Amino acid sequence: MPAYFTSLARESFRIEPHHFIADGNRVVVPSQMTADGQSADEVDVATFGFEGRVTKLQVAGDTALRERL
């Protein structure tokens, strides 16, 4: 996983959130990720714990795009 984030730092990388959907201690964020001129939809789910800190982050998206980066 560190190699993935390192590769993103070298490329043009952007995440554009479309909505923020809150339900209790979870926030769902459908978004579009663009990296190195390629775009894909993804959904992030953040779970918040005590004092508003993120305790869990789940990302569902185009794994094939991530493998190419």
Automatic annotation (TrEMBL):
Domain of life of the organism encoding this protein: Bacteria
Lineage, top ranks: Bacteria, Bacillati, Actinomycetota, Actinomycetes, Micrococcales
Protein name: Uncharacterized protein
Protein's organism: Terrabacter terrae
InterPro entries: NTF2-like_dom_sf
